[in-house]
Amino acid sequence: MKKLEPELKKNGFLYKLVERTDNCAIYEQFDIDDPNNVYSVAFEVFEVRIAKESSINGRIIEGGERFPGNEDFGSKKCWSFTCISGRDKALNKAKSKYEELKLKVI
Fold first, then answer.
1. CA 67, 70, 73, 74: dihedral to nearest 10 degrees?
2. What is the pTM of this model?
3. Most buried residue, 33, 56, 81, 97, by most Cβ within 10 Å?
4. What is the DSSP letter of 2?
5. Mean pLDDT, 10 residues at a time, over the chain (106 residues)?
6. In angstroms, rounded to a whole number, what is the distance separating the alpha carbons of residues 52 and 90?
7. Cα(94)–Cα(3) distance, rounded to whole angstroms?
8. Degrees (nearest 5) of the Cα angle 1, 102, 26?
9. pLDDT of residue 106
10. Phi and psi dihedrals of 100, rounded to 5?
11. Which residues pair with 20 in a beta bridge?
12. What are phi and psi for residue 63, nearest 5 degrees?
């Protein structure tokens, strides 16, 4: 089964894995135009979803873990903690939610 990558690019952002278990993850979000990845934009915490293999227009899409899409936020499975009021504060909130998810049975 395909696993989530420790780094990925999506929607003009770079995401770097901070911490994860089998069922949840925290990624730090950076502006893709920041060459040194110095300025965090947010931390994203989510339940890891598993998608089945599928076919679209005859093209096979491999099953496996999926990074959440924009539509997943607000679904009680994905949260974003922005760094507007400070990176450490956002990270603490993200880790608190992450700890809560680790205890949840999916």
1. -160
2. 0.88
3. 81
4. B
5. 93 95 95 83 94 90 91 88 93 96 77
6. 33
7. 22
8. 70
9. 54
10. -60, -45
11. 25
12. -75, 160
